[in-house]
Design goal:
The complex is a heterodimer of chains A (519) and B (501). With 519 residues, chain A is mostly helical. Chain A is built from 24 helices and two strands. In chain A, a hairpin with an 8-residue loop joins strand 1 and strand 2. Chain B has 501 residues and is mainly α. Helix content of chain B is 71%, strand content 1%. Chain B has a two-stranded antiparallel sheet with strand order 1-2. In chain B, helix 6 packs antiparallel against helix 11, helix 10 runs antiparallel to helix 11 and helix 12 runs antiparallel to helix 13. Classes of the chains: A mainly alpha (519), B mainly alpha (501). The interface between A and B is large, with 37 and 38 residues.
């Protein structure tokens, strides 16, 4: 049901406004001018306003269909591609995530002292436009297209404003991500052609494939293409090597957007596209998924333990947490997939917060080496409080959203006889993350200070421009942690619709054989 | 044989519709007029020659666009008693050649300004090549095909060696001449072989007028497994693959692209390649359509090796013109994937055309940027350090051009590759798809290395030497800005180019 009303135009504007503001910033070179600053703020604030407004207007009873739909032709009709935008219960929370993290990252970047700031802001704005578009797309092609918007800006941002060794890291990241993107593009093209539906729109594909599903072997192959393509983009083990170095080298706002939001693109793709449309493929590949995800959790977890560099540790820890998401995906149950969504949401907020705070720590101690810091809590108590809270959140302390995500995934794993053995192994991951998280906190903030005196004299607590984004992200974490119902209700009804379709129901039945026998 | 009566001759003459090739006649007259201008007023020639040649290209372009009524693929009209065939395909390619010639003229005007070489002859040759390519793409008879192709090739021999006081240019010209002569003779031998075997009255479908595409198509369909037919077809293919620069006929490409003056490199890379591909597409969907059993494997192997060779060799290059040459070989490989798909999926022909259009925009973007860095043919990556400070506008243009060549959204090159991938998947060419992906990933390395060198300047902020800041005039901004805009537009709204039916 395509309704061109004010809400759908707002949705389109949430993508266009950052893009246009980014182009404007590209052309101006004088960052001191007030109009340019307000243009940048508008570019980041508008998607946030639209996202919150659309949240209030969201109609959860339209499960199985999309809210705020908009469909425009772009000259690619003969291959069935339209600019089809809309939000459903799975994409709405992620849309808000992109808006919130984008606003925080943008505000933080505006007050950073990067050289050629107008170029930096322009690239962030273009990236933001791409992120908003990714989650708002119903059309498979534009879903991929908006994600690629972020590729050149990330390359340029890491290459110009990144840390040491940035040139080779930027190249490695770009090549690796292009490989993953191309594999998933072939998967999407294959899905379009094999389905026979002559359309790239998810709505039409879903209804078409419910009536005439693809052959099981073909479904399996398509799922593999999408799994590995998206898996590379989400740093599935062993395709993860681009992520830690990339995030360690990236400037903080770019790292916030990339680790917090862009990484969720692959998981969102699997959740929104691969599971509903290629359900039997999920059943076939779940063993692979489980073992690789365990590699993420355990092997990368142990590697994270060995890290001494703060940002590198955070990079590895974000790779590790993706392991939980993949485990949730492998459960093929409503609880598991819902847990994945909650985890994505909470992890996005917490990792963005952690990257921002790590840059704040760097500005104060002039180093990322955790053993060369200490006692920061005496001079910057608010920073310490936020950092400890963010670390606790990422470990999975109840009260923050990550807890609900991980709990749901563990519950889903434990439900099924076949996957019960994974639960203790995954729980070890929690212990590992607690170890490195608390150790990092102890090394940076507690104990005696190893910072040289000249630097230590100038340490001040969080300034306003650092506090505001931190508070915004933190509030989001608390909100989901204390009241996850605002997200989970809608997600639940949406996933129930997905699990009614035959291929997915069969996959679920394969995973839970004992439930059938008990009836 | 029909008796040659007056009626027969009158019938034959009826098909000579000169008004149909009015653009070509007009451009040829303009070319001659340019020589007259230089003879009559040598002092003011510099001002008038460029403007006249641009006018001579843009007027026919406007005429063609206005009379172009493409929506369905019409079979086309056969003219001049079977020599020419005008269809939607040929009209699109004629517009393409006019646009590329206009852009080359613009590039050459800046390149030749203040140089020691004669200027007028360059523009005359560009116009003649444009006319010959337009006739080539309309040819429906092997004699017409060969004459037009040779006109293009010989004019290019002169253009490549145009800077005759430079060793590199002369060397490139000589290499192109020798290789071109070899390939032309192989091509001609193939054509003659086909003519000979098709005239054998003992075989089914034999015809005395076998050089006509339609007659040859009927013959080949009935005799696809004849050894001489196969040999002839492969030899013609060899001649065409030389023009498009596909492996194993690509040896001339790097040296000629590097040694030739910059506008000629651009012309070769874009128009000559496009001419080769349009001719290949016409042959593959026309006379050689029945030879798919042998052509599909051969073209597939050529495509795979071209993609891999072009991309891997480009990684090792340090001089930018050679990088563009090797990447051109890789792009020829991608286009060949589209040609192979055209055997199975009819609309793949238009996917190839769309790719050529985005390749035109992207290549000219990059070549124009090179044009602002002087007349040095050995430009290397080092000359691009701090480029983003010397001229942010040119740097943006270069980034968009290279990104489009690499196939990054939201630029036009991505949509072109998307169409090719869709067509290839529909034709079940999975191995070719896999090799294309590998090629794209490898190409990211050298394209992004170039962008990296331009953009990633050291953190040092000492001011750029005032002399090295590149200044552009307003008309440069207009032309280059429209190239930039075209690249983005083709990526965001591909429907603006109504090629795909």
């Amino acid at each position: 049901m395509t309704v061109l009303d004010s809400h759908s135009i707002l949705l389109l504007s949430a993508i266009c406004i950052p893009f246009l503001m980014g182009l404007y910033a590209l052309l101006c070179s004088n960052m001191q001018s007030a109009p340019l600053k307000s243009v940048c703020i508008a570019g980041f604030a508008w998607p946030l306003v639209v996202a919150i407004f659309l949240c209030t207007q969201f109609d959860a009873s339209l499960a199985g269909d999309y809210n705020f739909q908009l469909r425009l032709p772009t000259g690619l009709e003969q291959v069935g591609i339209y600019l089809h935008l809309g939000l459903n219960a799975i994409s709405m929370p992620l849309f808000c995530l992109a808006a919130i993290v984008g606003a925080a990252a943008g505000y933080y970047a505006l007050h950073s002292k990067a050289e050629r700031l107008h170029l930096y802001m322009a690239l962030l704005l273009i990236m933001q436009a791409g992120l908003m578009g990714t989650f708002a797309s119903i059309d498979l092609f534009f879903f991929y297209f908006f994600h690629e918007f972020a590729l050149i800006p990330t390359f340029i941002m890491i290459g110009i404003w990144g840390g040491p060794d940035r040139k080779s890291v930027a190249m490695e990241l770009t090549i690796y991500l292009t490989l993953g993107a191309l594999i998933s593009l072939i998967g999407l093209i294959a899905l379009y052609l094999e389905s026979g539906a002559d359309t790239f729109s998810m709505i039409e594909l879903r209804s078409y494939l419910a009536a005439n599903p693809i052959l099981e072997t073909v479904q399996s192959n398509l799922f593999a293409l999408l799994l590995f393509g998206f898996g590379i983009l989400v740093s599935l083990f062993p395709f993860h090597s681009w992520a830690p170095k990339g995030y360690a080298c990236a400037p903080s706002s770019a790292a916030m957007l990339h680790a917090g939001v862009l990484k969720k693109f692959g998981l969102y793709g699997l959740l929104q596209i691969a599971v509903p449309l290629l359900g039997s493929g999920l059943g076939d590949w779940s063993t692979w998924l489980i073992w690789l995800a365990l590699g993420n959790v355990l092997i990368i977890g142990l590697i994270t333990l060995a890290q001494k560099d703060l940002k590198l540790m955070l990079g590895y820890s974000s790779v590790m947490h993706m392991g939980y998401a993949f485990l949730g995906l492998a459960t093929a149950s409503i609880v598991g997939l819902g847990g994945v969504l909650l985890m994505m949401l909470a992890h996005g907020l917490s990792v963005a917060l952690l990257f921002m705070l790590s840059t704040c720590v760097y500005h104060r101690s002039q180093s990322f080496d955790m053993s060369a810091m200490g006692g920061l809590a005496q001079r910057a108590p608010v920073l310490a409080a936020f950092f400890v809270a963010a670390t606790m959140a990422s470990i999975g302390l109840p009260g923050f959203g990550n807890f609900w995500g991980e709990f749901a995934i563990f519950a889903a794993l434990a439900e099924s006889e076949a996957t019960r053995w994974i639960t203790p192994l995954a729980a070890i991951g929690i212990i590992i993350s607690a170890i490195y998280g608390l150790r990092a906190v102890a090394n940076i903030f507690l104990g005696s200070s190893k910072i040289p005196n000249e630097t230590a004299e100038s340490i001040v607590d969080l300034k306003f421009h650092e506090k505001l984004p931190a508070v915004v992200l933190f509030a989001g974490l608390l909100l989901i942690g204390c009241y996850p119902k605002i997200v989970s209700d809608a997600v639940d009804s949406e996933l129930q619709q997905v699990f009614k379709t035959p291929p997915v129901a069969t996959a679920q039945a394969e995973q839970l054989p004992q439930l059938d026998s008990s009836h | 044989m029909e008796p040659i009566t007056a009626d027969f001759l009158k019938q034959l003459a009826d098909t000579n519709r000169w008004s149909a090739i009015l653009p070509e006649i007009f451009i040829a007259c303009v070319a001659l007029a340019l020589l007259a201008i230089e003879m009559l007023s040598p002092k003011r020639a510099g001002y008038w020659v460029v403007r006249t040649s641009l006018l001579g290209l843009l007027l026919p372009l406007a005429y063609l666009l206005m009379t172009f009524t493409c929506t369905e693929c019409s079979a086309g009209d056969v003219l001049f008693s079977g020599l020419l065939l005008q269809s939607d395909f040929s009209t699109i390619m004629r517009c393409f050649f006019l646009v590329s010639a206009a852009l080359v003229t613009y590039l050459a005007a800046r390149y030749l300004k203040g140089s020691e070489w004669a200027k007028t002859e360059f523009f005359v040759l560009v116009l003649i090549i444009a006319v010959a390519m337009m006739l080539l793409v309309q040819s429906h008879h092997f004699v017409m095909f060969f004459v037009a192709l040779e006109t293009v090739t010989i004019a290019f021999y002169v253009l490549v060696a145009y800077c005759r006081t430079r060793v590199l240019s002369l060397e490139a010209g000589l290499k192109y001449l020798v290789m071109g002569a070899l390939s032309s003779s192989i091509l001609l031998f193939g054509i003659v072989l086909l003519y000979g075997v098709a005239g054998n009255t003992a075989l089914a479908g034999a015809s005395p007028d076998a050089l006509n595409y339609t007659e040859l198509k009927q013959f080949i369909e009935l005799n696809a497994d004849n050894l001489l037919v196969k040999l002839g077809v492969l030899m013609v293919l060899a001649g065409i693959c030389f023009k498009i620069g596909a492996v194993p006929f690509q040896i001339w490409v790097p040296d000629v692209y590097q040694g030739a003056p910059l506008p000629v490199t651009a012309y070769l890379a874009v128009a000559s390649k496009a001419a080769g591909f349009s001719v290949l597409l016409q042959l593959v969907t026309g006379p050689f359509a029945g030879m798919s059993e042998i052509l599909v494997p051969v073209l597939s192997v050529i495509a795979i090796v071209s993609i891999l060779f072009g991309n891997i060799a480009a990684v090792t290059q340090g001089q930018v013109k050679r990088v563009l040459a090797f990447s051109g070989i890789a792009h020829a490989g991608y286009l060949l994937v589209g040609v192979v798909a055209a055997f199975y999926v009819p609309w793949a022909v238009y996917a190839v055309l769309f790719y050529l259009c985005t390749y035109l925009v992207a290549s000219f973007s990059v070549m124009n940027v090179l044009g602002f860095l002087g007349r040095d043919e050995s430009l290397s990556y080092d000359d691009f350090k701090q480029f983003s400070r010397k001229s942010p506008f040119l740097c943006t243009l270069l980034t968009c051009g290279l990104g489009s060549l690499a196939g990054i959204p939201p630029l036009g090159g991505f949509i072109a590759k998307l169409f090719l991938f869709i067509a290839a998947y529909q034709a079940n060419l999975y191995i070719l798809l896999l090799v294309s992906i590998i090629g794209v990933v490898i190409s990211i390395y050298y394209y992004f290395s170039w962008i990296r060198i331009c953009l990633f300047t050291e953190h040092s902020l000492h001011a750029i030497d005032e002399k090295s800041v590149i200044s552009l005039r307003r008309r440069d901004y207009c032309v280059l800005g429209s190239l930039l805009f075209a690249s983005l537009l083709l990526g965001l709204y591909p429907g603006v180019l109504p090629i795909i039916p």
